[in-house]
Amino acid sequence: MQQQEVDQRTFPGDPMMRWLQLLAMVVWVGGIIFFAFVLAPVGFHTLRSVQLAGSVVGATLKVFDLIAFGCGLLFLSVTGWLYVQSPMRLKGRYELELLLAGIMLLATAYLHWGILPPMDRDRAQAGGDISTLAPDNPARIHFDRFHSRSEHVEELVLIVGLGMLFLLSRGGIRDE
Predict the structure, then answer these.
(1) Model-wide pTM > 0.85
(2) Can you say whether residue 146 is alpha, beta or left, with left for phi > 0 and alpha for psi between -120 and 50 degrees?
(3) pLDDT per residue over 150-173, tens digit each?
């Protein structure tokens, strides 16, 4: 009983902090799911041109990345606070959460600053519509390679994020 009282004093904001962690991760992972399985497919199947769909999807991804950065920073901040406040026996859990969120944030930054700008340059070189270029055109080959890379990076972020949600769903910290 004494140990539980000490832990409650150690974590006065634990339920709210865990909720903030969960909120940040749900918004981030949910946004990726919405983007990949709703926005992009619907955009490319309903808009009148590939150029227009690509413009909408590309612009939306850039805005979503900013939301993802906010979610990542919130998650890292809250988890860092929980780590600092936690007793030694609980630090490993927060270290894993920090590591996974760091991977997600770095992958998102790579997508935002390392992959999207070259794709934009290739699209501009094609006059705005990459689909008008022949499949063997160097700009088209480069664009397709970076597009594939962007999908793989987003898949990584999604898989790590789903794993993080699994960890967070395991509930609060128990005295066992």
Answers:
(1) yes
(2) alpha
(3) 999 999 999 999 999 999 988 654
